[in-house]
Design a protein that fits this description.
Keywords: Repeat, WD repeat. One of its GO terms (biological process) is ribosome biogenesis. This is Glutamate-rich WD repeat-containing protein 1. It comes from Zophobas morio. The relative contact order is 0.12. The chain has a 4-stranded antiparallel β-sheet, with no helix packed on it. The chain is mainly β and about 400 residues long. The two termini are about 25 Å apart.
């Protein structure tokens, strides 16, 4: 909005002129909520619940786990959040679902619990796909820990006033990494299988044991020349693992052969920060780099000289998160250090009869939406049970939103 109150669409690549201000357009969202937390969270994950799949009706209920970045090691926590009574952001007298939103109680209800994490900052946190009460935590003290959060989840699910215990000991701790790290992932194909990677280039394989714990293979995966930034298990093959590194490569591993990778590609001209394996089309992988580029790869033609099937340079700073939509094979979310989350549909093509040459050069046809308003965005995740709903964490807090075009 300018001094004369005229309204125009803002592009993140443009600088605001004197007298211009940004205003949030609520009509662009079906839902938008902000969660303020005591300490910034570098990482979070969505906890799957028993409320059903493919939920589209409001109000919504959501569960999250997040790890803090507190001022002192002893103040860090694993947070568990239940957000309920989530109605549509836009108030309409005659809504599509027949609810008159001016007459309902629209204030969300937040219920939370925590586990103390006095070991230090939580670099990354991931919930086990087959057992949502089990979660893995990468700490900046160089250890990876497994926790059972069943009591915390039961507490936020119920209305009891009795708090869950917060001094919960880890189920399992692995201190074999030579330094801290960020990379880790659970296999969705083989229950309990897990991998963790550190900043000294090593990746370790975790195998579940009969007593509900894990056995760590003594020999790490050997091949990267620098910090392992992210890991992704194949959504269809139990032994296929992808890794990316600040050595500029993406590697595909066979878990049965750790001495060398199966495939290695120099993927970016800079650090490769994040990767995501498409759960619906298992030969598609997306990567994000320090230069703000993200690239889509076809693993059927993946090799030493492979080229991406698509490259996008929309973000103006490092890519911090990429994730394919869980139920739409061509849609993905990308977050960057430029305080943007961009949503894309790679199946779209430019309509040259409708768009002007200026629009074609500024806005890619595949770009669906740009979400802003958070500072130092770290991660964005699609909700696996609520189609089109995204959550994101940043230094300024957690956002939950659903746009009108997804």
């Amino acid at each position: 909005i300018t001094n004369d109150e005229s309204v125009k669409v803002y592009l993140p690549s443009e600088k605001l002129k004197e007298g211009e201000v940004l205003e949030f357009d609520a009509t662009a969202y079906d839902l938008l909520q902000t969660i303020n937390v005591e300490w910034p969270c570098l990482s979070f994950d969505i906890i799957k619940d028993n409320l059903g799949e493919n939920r589209t009706e409001f109000p919504l209920t959501l569960y999250f786990a997040a790890g803090t970045q507190a001022d002192q090691a002893v103040n860090n926590k694993i947070l568990f959040i239940k957000l309920s009574n989530l109605y549509k952001t836009s108030s309409q007298d005659d809504s599509d679902d027949g609810i008159e939103y001016d007459e309902v109680e629209e204030d969300p209800i937040l219920r939370d619990s925590f586990i103390k994490h006095p070991f230090g900052i939580i670099n990354r946190i991931r919930v086990a796909p087959h057992k949502s009460e089990i979660l893995s935590v990468w700490g900046d003290d160089g250890s990876v820990r497994m926790f059972n959060a069943s009591e915390q989840i039961k507490y936020i699910e119920s209305s009891t006033k009795r708090a869950a215990p917060f001094n919960v000991k880890p189920l399992f701790t692995f201190s074999g990494h030579p330094c801290e790290g960020f990379a880790m992932d659970w296999s969705t194909v083989k229950q309990g299988r897990f991998a963790s990677g550190d900043c000294s280039k090593q990746v370790y394989l975790w195998e579940p044991t009969e007593d509900g714990l894990w056995s760590i293979c003594e020999t790490p995966f050997v091949g990267h020349e620098s910090s392992v930034e992210d890991l992704q298990w194949s959504p269809s093959e139990p032994n296929a693992l992808a890794s990316c590194s600040s050595d500029k490569t993406i590697k595909i591993w066979d878990a049965r052969q750790k001495s060398r990778c199966a495939i290695s590609v120099r993927a970016h001209q800079c650090d490769v920060n994040v990767i995501s394996w498409n759960k619906l089309v298992s030969y598609l992988l997306v990567s994000g780099g320090d230069d703000g580029e993200f690239k889509v790869w076809d693993l059927r033609t993946f090799g030493a000289k492979a080229l991406p099937i698509a490259t996008f340079k929309w973000h103006t700073d490092a890519i911090t998160s990429v994730e394919w939509h869980p139920c739409d094979e061509s849609v993905l979310a990308v977050s960057g250090a430029d305080d943007q989350i961009s949503l894309w549909d790679l199946s779209l093509e430019e309509d040259y009869e409708v768009s002007s040459p200026e629009e074609q050069s500024k806005i890619p046809a595949q770009l669906l939406f740009v979400h802003q308003g958070q500072n130092h965005i770290k991660e964005a995740h699609w909700h696996p049970q609520v189609p089109g709903l995204l959550a994101s964490t940043a230094a300024s807090g957690i956002n939950v939103f659903k746009t009108i075009n997804i």
